[in-house]
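re: that chain from earlier
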Amino acid sequence: MKADLQEARPFAAHAPDRDRPLGGYALLTSAFLACAGGFSAWLRRSNRQLPERVTPGDLALITVASHKASRLLAKDRVTSTVRAPFTRFQEDGAAGEVEEEARGSGLQRAIGELVTCPYCLGLWISAGFNAGLVVAPRVTRFSAALLAVTSGSDTLQILYKRLEGT
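^ sequence. v structure.
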């Protein structure tokens, strides 16, 4: 699967001088869509309803929690063990974070690119939080609040460190 899709006729001119794991991307996209479709089908069969609207408070909470969770998974030193099969350490990053690059080819590389990109993970995580609001709102709000408070604490730690330096 390494370059098979990349070499296929409609994709061959996409990145002729670079190895792009298009097949891996297609599998990850399919997995995301399958999860979303599966959740939608389950929701319909369970006779549950989507909320009429998402409250501004829930929207803010999920936004901050998704940001924190995506950075935690993509950049945190401790979560390197989750990323290690797909990445290579480059250097220490911002406070408590590391910089890593995807390694391998095909699906391994595509997963490596996903798990090192907080922007990419954000969609997956926010989808989970939104589904959680439908299925288990109390647990979801509790988990999101934990991440949001941690994000606020991180911000205060960074500000404190900057003030110390002046």
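Strands lie at 87-92, 98-102.
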